[in-house]
Amino acid sequence: MAWRQFVMNLDALDPEAVEAIFVQCGASSLTLTDAGDMPVLEPGPGETPLWADTRITGLFSRETDLTELCDALMMEFGLQELPAHRIEDLEDRDWEREWLKDFGPMQFGQRLWVYPKGSEPLGDDIEVVYLDPGLAFGTGTHATTALCLEWLDGLPLEGKTLLDYGCGSGILAIAALKLGCTCAVAMDIDPQACTATRQNASDNGVAENLDVLGSASEIEGDFDVVVANILAG
Q1: Largest CB tally within 10 Å, which of 100, 152, 160, 202?
Q2: Which among 105, 9, 2, 4 has a CA at the least distance from the CA of 53?
């Protein structure tokens, strides 16, 4: 199916009212993004702050007449013209997998490589983590993940145990097992992260040596190595 997206700066418009009009006019999905440069890093419990300069993107079927959306927005807010906006046509793709085109093999330290799931390794004397992160954080492209992977590659992990606290995709725990750990525990409170970790562990043949937990209260015992690639606070 071919798609069309309508991208508009909100300026001073009420986000919820704009979202409602987008939905009424047939939007299949809505995304709010930062139109400036003001990151929202760690909101408080129950808070959903937006950026001072926010952009909304609505995804519509190609057949949707977006002039109706423009008219509805101008009528609702009494505008003579809309804030800065554009319409983009999108060809249909396997969107869940599209990003993998830019996800290639990456080396961390001397031995460790991360490959997209289904790729063929380029050498025999390396340790490879095959990764399909799904919706969970952790591909190796983020600086903190890369630093953790390089650090693990430099450790003597043979026979050690490891706890990955806030495991995301499970990349750190799986890498540790590939590098010699006898067993590992991966914990994350995000169910999607736990699902991704279990699948990635299975894909890498280490599922039997990895316990995946959904709560810190389930963690028991001591560990030789602990990694926590998470936000502080």
Answers
A1: 152
A2: 9
